[in-house]
Structure to design on (123 residues):
C-alpha cells in the first residue's frame, strides 16, 4: 500500500510558475514509476508527465513539453512537478500517481493516487 499526498496547488497568473510536490508513505517509492495527471472540469483525466524509478528518464504530454519538469527524490520519497510559463488551459486538479510500470501514460496502469490539488491559472 502506498499513500500519496500532494502539496497545495494555488492560483497563479498566466506566465507564472508553480511547483507541486507529492510525498509517498508506505512502501518505498523507488519501487514505482511515478506520474502526474490532471483533470479539468467536464474533461477526462489527462496524462501530464511520468518518470522512471531511477529518475533519469521522463515523458511528457506535448502540451507541457518545455514548460513542465518532473523529478523525484527517492531518499525523500517525493516527486515534484515544476510548472513554468503556465497558461489558463493548465487549470485543473492535478494528481500524482504510482505505477508498477514505468513511464506509462495510461491512468488505469497506476495503482495508487493522491487526493488531487487544484491549480488555477488566470488570464
Amino acid at each position: 500500500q502506498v499513500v500519496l499526498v500532494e502539496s497545495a496547488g494555488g492560483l497563479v497568473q498566466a506566465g507564472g510558475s508553480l511547483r507541486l510536490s507529492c510525498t509517498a508513505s508506505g512502501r518505498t517509492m523507488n519501487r514505482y514509476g511515478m506520474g502526474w495527471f490532471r483533470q479539468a472540469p467536464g474533461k477526462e483525466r489527462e496524462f501530464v508527465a511520468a518518470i522512471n524509478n531511477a529518475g533519469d528518464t521522463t515523458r511528457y504530454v506535448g502540451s507541457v513539453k518545455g514548460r513542465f519538469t518532473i523529478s523525484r527524490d527517492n531518499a525523500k520519497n517525493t516527486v515534484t512537478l515544476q510548472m513554468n510559463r503556465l497558461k489558463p488551459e493548465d487549470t485543473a486538479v492535478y494528481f500524482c500517481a504510482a505505477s508498477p510500470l514505468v513511464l506509462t501514460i495510461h491512468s488505469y496502469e497506476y495503482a495508487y493516487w493522491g487526493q488531487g490539488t487544484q491549480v488555477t491559472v488566470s488570464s
Summary: The chain has a mean pLDDT of 96. The two ends are 40 Å apart (CA to CA). The first strand starts at residue 2 and ends at 6. The CA atoms of residues 51 and 58 lie 4 Å apart.
